Amino acid sequence: MKAGKDSRGAKKRTGNAKTGRATGIGVRSAKGQKGMFYITTAIDYPNSKPHLGHAYEKTVADCIARWHRLKGEDVFFLTGTDEHGKKIQQAAEKAGKPPKEFVDWQVTGFKELCVKWGVSHDRFIRTTDQGHERMCQGLFQKALDSGDIYLGTYDGLYCVACEAFYLEKDLDHGLCPVHRKPVENVKEESYFFRMSKYQKRWLVFMEKNQGFIFPKSKRAEVVNRVREGLHDLSVSRTTFDWGIPLKSDPKHVIYVWFDALLNYLSGVDWPSAKSKKFWPADIHVIGVDILWFHSVIWPTMLFSLGIELPKKILVHGFIRSASGEKLSKTTGAIVDPLEVGDTYGVDSVRYYLLREIPLGEDGNFSEAALVERHNRELANDLGNLLNRTMSLAEKKLNGIVPKAKVDQELAKQLGLKKIVSHMDALEPHMALAEIFSFVSACNRYVNGKEVWKLEGKQAEAALYSLLDSLRVIAILLSPFMPDTAVRISGQLNVPLGSWKDLKFGLLRGGKRLGTKEILFVKKDVPAEAKAQVARDISVSIEPRLDALGLKLACAVVEGVSVKKKHEGLDRSIRETVKAADLSAVEASGVIQGYLELYDALGVPRQRHAVANLVEIARQSGKLPTINTVVDSYNLTSITRGFIVGAHDLDRVSGNVRVKIADGSEVYIPLGAQEAVPVKSGEYVFVDDKVVLCHLDVKQGEHTKVTNETRNVFLYVQGNARTPQRELDSAMEEICGNIVKFCGGKWKRVEVSVR
Ligand code: ME8
After folding, report:
1. Which structural domains are found in the chain, ordered by start?
2. What is the pLDDT of residues 216-275, one digit of tens each?
3. Does the model's pTM come out above 0.85?
4. Which of 52, 79, 82, 301 to mutate to test the pocket of ligand 1 (most atoms within 8 A of CB)?
5. Which atom, in ligand 1's list, is nearest to the CA of 298?
6. Tens-digit pLDDT profile for residues 140-163
7. Ligand 1 within 6 A of 43 CB?
8. DSSP 214-253
9. Which end of the chain is less crowded, N or C, counting CB atoms within 10 A of the terminal residue's CB?
């Protein structure tokens, strides 16, 4: 069965709940009426094909929408496309098509994505829909009549890619800070929205509604920017015509963001019985790049129109390439969601994205990590559980569900309350972890009871417990992996249940099971990720540096699997920071030894990186979370004071030399695209092409460790005050931790002085 078909099917089944038959844990929506829930995604620009970021956003919203439907709520889920504005007009011109014909064609790709990814939206809105256009004209006129919109002249800067106005001070070296492209100088007659008038009201609103922006960490920046002052906003354009014309002055078209944001109202036919039922929206799901528009412009528009504000803006993180680059056509880092869905199965990709990336955090899309989760968690843990339960039921019970009771020892291992509270807290990754911990409990049950050896009543009791648990697992998985949920229920030969069926013992005895089928076929790790055998590398130190006491312990760890974070590692870090004597680290003289080395080289002393790290640990009780390699070595850095650096061995060219810089070296700092000079006189680690590390600045963009890294080259730096054996033992500790939290194996690398 195709995912799309299943998704609608799953929705219809849970739709039973809409008739009021669903019981279970009652949940009130924000509107106070039991069971109304309105969720939206951003509407996508169809100037090119959908990308993985679009698919991710729809997956997040879909999962939440399905979860609320499962709870028996009346859900309205809106997605769609943002079809006006100069960006679309330019793309249409490039394609040689009139804009409407262009968007009519482009939108098919976005609709196909929704079908293939099992997105269970109730409406796909297009801003070229007549109803939307009429409503926009009406609401614009209302603001004009009330005096909140006035005529003036816009004279300033505009980025077409963002469809946004900029002030000179916000540019980055004269370029748009988001797209790094030149901005346009615009001077034209324009209507303005009196956004400035609502500054105070907005700040009061934000004070009262602390949870308006999720995650909270994204709130402060917006609040600070509004505190600095709100400018009136240009809300019409006259220099192109692809937009909604003003009723009263048709040579103006409505600014594309003013038009687009109103989709959340026209999507429920504002004003209508439907909008009365669903507005205000419970959650707008968006990416961080459009937070300003949703958290400031949109609320002030609603203040002006006298319309209630949405309850929550959920800001998800950005998906980047496996090596952490921004997904972009210019850099060639693009992932086609339809293609990855076809290769790995949509449910596997949905699972990977929802399990791997905590909501609100950025995530790197790594095919190797996706395959690993697909093989280990889906094919091995879940797939095998179903497969062996079905096989044993066939063999021992002739494929008939026995009349028995669920073993309470197994049942009590399902953390339903935890799953619910994780979903309430918008932590789908944790909810999934909890569901899969029950899957593991079921696998342990099979092994512990040696079910394959049981006969008669004992076999019946154990297999009934497993079959019924799989029925419950299918229901719980339905918001995350709708197709899989239907396929599991199909094998059990029961309809996919709803909230009221989330109790044990509902599987009817005497019924025949369905046909056994493999849920997930194991996939091969992509060829690039297979290069796990580390190449050889040598390290040499310039004699002058050796004479000044600079020393090293170096190693390679091969075949690692790097992740953003690891719960065990986080725990170790918290415990280590708590127990560490951070003042002793500073007093130990190790950090002082580095500063003395800088003095000997005539390099200015700056605050030392390790001292900074110790300070962070002291103040916050934790360390920054970078990835499981960096976090593993930071653990040693803060307890022993050493500078440690790690690099992706497969991105290091040739061998590594530690030398005194002459100023001609190429260094690209983390996150940058351009090289910056390194001061002559500093000591630097260089390969055949670039600087890997200078002084205590231990990483560069070129060789940084990412989720895609398979082999790591690392070093512990020492100085005149640190005996070599201490460096060696620190290296052992670090490599031990990396192997513990990232897998692989490690070997020492010899260092020569020449
Ligand atoms: O901004 N990872 O449209 P859009 C995750 N039309 N999310 C991403 C992403 C990535 N790499 N790239 C983009 C627009 N997004 C406007 C919205 S709403 C009234 C108008 C997210 O096609 C982005 O943050 O550029 C946004 O939420 C959505 O995809 C559509 O982006």
Report:
1. 36-316 (3.40.50.620), 366-501 (1.10.730.10), 534-753 (3.50.40.10)
2. 999 999 999 999 999 999 999 999 999 999 999 999 999 999 999 999 999 999 999 999
3. no
4. 82
5. 19
6. 999 999 999 999 998 889 998 888
7. yes
8. ESGGGHHHHHHHHHT----EE-EE-S---SPBPSS-TTSE
9. C
